[in-house]
Amino acid sequence: MKTLDARGWTCPLPVIETKKLTETMNAGEQLEVLVDNEIAVQNLTKFAAQRNHAVVSSKVEEKKYQVILTVGSQESCECELDQTSDFIVAIGSNKMGEGDPALGTALMKAFIFALTKQDQFPTTILFFNSGAYLTCQDSDVLEDLKTLESKGVEIFTCGT
Predict the structure, then answer these.
(1) Which residue among the candidates 11, 77, 136, 158 is catalytic per the annotation?
(2) pTM of the model
(3) pLDDT in tens, 90-127
(4) Helix axes 142-150 and 101-115, enclosed angle (nearest 10)
(5) What single-letter DSSP state applies at residue 23?
(6) N or C: which terminal CB in the chain sees fewer CB atoms within 10 Å?
(7) In sequence order, what are the residues at sequence separation of 6 or more whose Cβ sits closer than 8 angstroms to the Cβ of residue 26?
């Protein structure tokens, strides 16, 4: 059994790293993921269900949860799949949500990073209002946007 210690990691990193590891594993192999909060357990459980992996979770102690995934069949395809999907992401702020600006900035950065790790990418991402700042030269998410663009995602910024 492989182990991934994701305690202290912010969302969505536990799921992203779990996805990477399970993609290298064979059906029937197990992965133990250690996390420090119930939300991470819920996110890993949802991920497992989407991927046909069996999952069992338990609280080991305060701020230590164990999630064991048993990898389901991962049939391979010898075909070239279109990685873009038929949906558009519209971003109208450089922060996610209301409240603490630093948290909102971190959440937006994590959201855009998570977009780079999807199996299917949006066809287009539209940036407007203060969201346009995310496409500027000194933006913390510029490399992630370049990654998305290299995968065929069209990125548009409002010019007003």
Answers:
(1) 11
(2) 0.62
(3) 999 999 999 999 999 999 999 999 999 888 899 999 99
(4) 20
(5) T
(6) C
(7) 71, 74
